[in-house]
Amino acid sequence: MSYEPVIGLEIHLELKVRSKMFCRCRADYFGKKPNSLTCPVCLGLPGALPYPNKKAIEWTVLLGLALGCEIPLEAKFDRKNYFYPDLPKGYQISQYFMPFCRRGHLTVKTANCKQKVVRINRVHLEEDTGKLLHTDFEGQNLTLIDFNRAGVPLVEIVSEPDLDSIEEMIEYAKKIRQLVKGLEISDADMEKGQMRFELNISLRRSGNQKLPSYRVEVKNINSFKFLEKAAKYEIRRQTEIWEAGKKPLQETRGFAEKRQVTFSQRGKEEAKDYRYFPEPDIPPIRWKKSQIESLRK
Questions:
Q1: Where are the domains of the chain?
Q2: Sorting pLDDT into bands at 50, 70 and 90, what band is 190?
Q3: How far apart are CA 280 and CA 78, in angstroms?
């Protein structure tokens, strides 16, 4: 029995603005001394209040317009609650209920040189996390945290599960990179972590048009080569599970670059697990149609 992949991508891109998303700290953190570009806001210290970066918001809308998205006249930020060492507040300021851009599309070429429209669910804006550094010190394996990256504006482009081959997936990802570089809103330098992928992949029987009842997410992939290898490994792994008469688990997995395999991290989270609620310290952001048309031009 043959199977075909069902693929959706979440693409994270750091915007090349001068300052961070909710404070005035410099955003050009790469290569700087660890924890030298921080303040009470991006460190999440008690009483520190965020204020949004106007240019980052405008560039997010600009990207949404280039992707044919609807731009609602009102948007707002939400708190995404989870606990991890690189998240200094214990939550991430992101968008869930009312993002800046919704329902867009991007046309890619398929393997047989036809045109295919990939639907885009949303384009939203959030703050990046800190960075974990795994090191050996005096014979001990330690994990250190550099918060210079915490708070850097991060735009996320979420596709629908419309990609059904690895070739289409790579073509789509490359077109997104070409687009943001052309708009001059991100350098999308993957060696510096400015463009990262989260792969959502499952399998269905060939010819079946229904979406599978499970989804595997592979987190934090930072090159086209690793994206391709992670997808190929997951297709093999999930095919073996189906052929053994079982169903793959819905879960979040990581990608081990040296061994070029994915590994289980945790059960797949749903939106309710993050306890999203409106960010109380930032009021809704409202647009006039004339402002959006100015960006479109």
A1: 3-18+47-126+157-296
A2: very high
A3: 8
